[in-house]
Amino acid sequence: MTKIFLFFTLILISGSSLFAQTKISGKIKSSKGEVLTGANIFIKGSYDGASSDVSGNFEFLTTETGEQVLVSSYIGYKSKEMKVTLDGKPLVLELVLDPDSKILKQVTISAGSFEASDERKSVVLKPLDILTTAGATGDLSSALNTLPGTSQVGETEGLFVRGGSSAETKTIIDEMIVQNPYFSNVPDVPQRGRFSAILFKGTIFSTGGYSAQYGQALSSTLILKSIDLPPDTRSSFGLLAAGFNAVHTQRWENTALSVSADYFNLAPYNNLIPQRVEWDEAPVGKAGTFLFRQKTGESGMYKFYGTFSNSQLSLYQQSLDDPTFKPRFQLNNTNFYINTSYTDIVLSDVALFAGYSYSNNNDDLQLNTFPANRDDQLHQFKVKGTKNIADIAFLTVGAETWFLKADDSFSSLKANLEDKYYAGFAETDFFLSDFAAFRVGTRYEYSDYLKKGNIAPRVSLAVRVRENDQINFAYGQFYQTPDRQFLYQGSNLDYERADHYILNYQYIGEKTTFRIEGYYKDYQSLMKRNITSPVFGVPDYQNNGSGYAKGIDVFWRDRGNTFENIDYWISYSWLDTERDYRDFPTLATPTFASEHTLTLVYKQAFRALNSFIGFTYTFSSGRPYYNPNNPIFNGDRTPVQHSLSFNGSWLTTIFDNFAIVYVSITNLPGYENIYGYRFSADGTRSQEVIAPALRTYFFGVFISFDYK
Questions:
Q1: Cβ contact 355:340 at 8 Å
Q2: Domain 17-101 classified CATH 2.60.40.1120?
Q3: What span, in angstroms and rounded, lies between the C-alpha atoms of 124 and 518?
Q4: Given its phi and psi angles, is residue 88 left (phi above 0), alpha (psi -120 to 50 degrees) or beta?
Q5: Contacts of 116 (CB under 8 A, 6+ apart)
């Protein structure tokens, strides 16, 4: 009770200071007249400030008084300082920034990665793009699936990148690994990610050749950077088609605290919208988050993020071997995740990071009458430092350790493992001139469970051809510990390995982006069943598998250059991949890989109506599947897949509070996509693998309560 009383007391004290504040508002643009979205405007020497919106407008309150210095800054432009007098009367300003030719010309190492951030001018996407992409409804992986290099896999969750499975992509939040980034797997029902895109100020999606600072991912990394101090105190409430969301953020001078609660129940929705899944108990879930941010000194920042979620569901499936029998699948999932970190500048010029994360995921399952359980816990500690060397290089050195404990059971069968994983890395970025840079690094890893270590070299090169044109190259070795299902079934195992070779050309103009990238991945030491092991009993897996993936990715984006208020991008991927691994009898294309994938994203703003619409169209060529009646393994192909999604939003006010009305529909024309087929044991009966619903609908009203 004392803590609760203190919390509300602080809110009241903070609220009373509003009477002594000055309101500063206005618009910021470039010297060419272009609005600057995401520019920073703040009072020097204080924590009072704001970022500009999509129209370049900004607004904030300050408790500072007298003559002060107002600072405005934006990546790629020269910062500007101006004196202002704060006496309680509102200030309305028109700010203009000039381009900084030195920053604009700085070369950026970008082979294999797409960055969504407001921190760099040369990014391909912005965080707002992830939130407003049709069909994604704020889900990070769904939005990133519109970029080249990803495969459209509609029957399960995750990012499938350049011929790699979803297990080969790792999610990282503020430098710390996320053990379970998606809600637990349900047969043929794809799950969303656990984390809201609104929590993050930056996203780096690496489709290959990523930094030596990260490991344990054969194909890809998704690196997320959380927001720092929010601009002000506010609350929001969202009423959704199947639940609600409530958030309160309290901002003090150098501290911020946010709490949120979520609840959903899909039963009413499923009763209205035809479902092709026979639900016994529709999904029901609740979640809560706690975020604390503390500014320490001029450069220090402490962050704590904790989240809890619980969900239950059950469904019936069709048995192909016995059409009269319907197996029942039941899941009760509980997930905890904690991420805490500290960053600061120490010893004058060393950027220090130290972090700890903990995750605990428990799946209580009932498979027909058989109980099963999946439980894992992961502790991670990480520390790194970055130092500027002779003004032409940055050296980063760090280390991390993981402690993993996993327990699995099915009926009376039980298996468990514990692993201690240690890693150290060193990496240097050299800027030879404004037109050339390269990165060289290496990573050492050791697994106590495998009793083996590895050394993974990485190198990247970037050369600017002209002011907006750049060529990038990357090479690296990447290792990953086998999935625990194979650790249970093998002995004297080693790491799986993939070597990446990437070459790209990109052009990034003021409003247009073009990028083409070719790659080759060489898979080695993959898990493969030993065919000499007994037919009966526990199968034996060894590191005898291999494979390759090669392809070309193309990306084009036009942000209002051709058509005013219209933003669109086109991505295309060609993929050729085969593997001889796991239970494959020969080299073959995995079932999750499509040779051709095309995506078109279209967004249009209607500023006079304060509204916005978007469409996303995706085409994928047929994927292979196993047909026991075909002597060629994975020799059959599904029909081609099409998808067209729509979303729309309207910005308005409800009881004088800012509000957004949002609606989205996936698979608008009702394409009947088939993701694969299942066969009975004797091969006489088959069943299509299809989406759980022909279309999905989302409707929400979000209200923001601003305490200015």
A1: yes
A2: yes
A3: 18
A4: left
A5: 123, 124, 125, 126, 127, 129, 130, 202, 203, 204, 205
> What is d(CA 595, CA 637) in angstroms, rounded to the nearest whole number?
11
In the 3-class helix/strand/coil scheme, how is 658-679 assigned residue by residue?
EEEEEEEEECCCCCCCEEEEEE
Instruction: Give the whole-angstrom CA distance, residue 390 versus residue 297.
Output: 26
Give how far the C-alpha of residue 195 lies from the chain's centroid of Cα atoms, to the nearest Å: 8
Contacts for 536 with CB less than 8 Å, ≥ 6 apart: none
Nearest Cα to Cα of residue 189 among 106, 121, 283 = 283
Residues 658, 679: Cα–Cα separation, whole Å: 53
- How far is CA 521 from each of CA 518, 615, 690, rounded to the nearest angstrom? 11, 33, 30
Strand arrangement, sheet containing 169-173: 113-117, 200-206, 220-226, 169-173, 176-178
Cα–Cα distance list, 678 to 315, 464, 635 (Å): 18, 50, 14
Distance CA(613)–CA(664), nearest Å, equals: 9
Q: What are phi and psi of 46, to 5 degrees?
A: -135, 180
Measured at the CA of 412, the angle between CA 408 and CA 417, to 5 degrees, comes to 30
Assigned architecture for domain 106-706: Beta Barrel (2.40)
SS3 content of the chain, % helix, strand, coil (to 5): 5, 60, 35
What's the CA gap between 401 and 412, in Å, rounded?
A: 33
Q: Count Cβ atoms within 10 A of the Cβ of residue 80 and give its class: 0-12 exposed, 13-18 middle, 19 or more buried.
A: middle
| Strand ranges across the sheet with 80-86 | 49-51, 40-43, 66-73, 80-86
CA angle 352, 358, 361 (to 5 degrees): 150
Closest by Cα among 410, 538, 520 to 476? 520
Dihedral sign of CA atoms 129, 300, 438, 388 in order: positive
Q: What is the pTM of this model?
A: 0.83
User: What's 51-85 look like in SS3?
Assistant: ECCCCCEEEEEECCCEEEEEEEECCCECCEEEEEE
In one letter, which amino acid is 326? Answer: K
Backbone dihedral angles phi then psi of residue 36, each to the nearest 5 degrees: -110, 110
Q: What's the token pair of residue 216?
A: 């344990």
Give the start-to-end residue ranges of the domains of the chain.
17-101, 106-706
Closest by Cα among 670, 649, 668 to 659: 649
pLDDT at 77: 74
CA distance 637 to 624: 4
Q: Across 14-23, 441-450, 693-702, which has the greatest mean pLDDT?
A: 441-450
CB distance 293 to 256 below 8 Å: yes
Contacts of 370 by beta carbon, 8 Å cutoff, 6+ apart: 410, 411
* Residue whose C-alpha is closest to residue 526's, from 162, 160, 164: 164
**Three-state DSSP state, 630:** coil
Distance CA 518, CA 239 (A): 44
Q: What's the average model confidence in pLDDT over 165-179?
A: 94
Tokens of 448: 């106590």
- Which whole-number Å values give the CA distances from 301 to 229, 296, 514, in the listed order? 9, 6, 36
Q: Which two tokens stand for residue 687?
A: 């069943």
Per DSSP, 242 falls in state T
**Comparing 50 with 384, which gets the higher pLDDT?**
384
pLDDT in tens, 374-383: 999 999 999 9
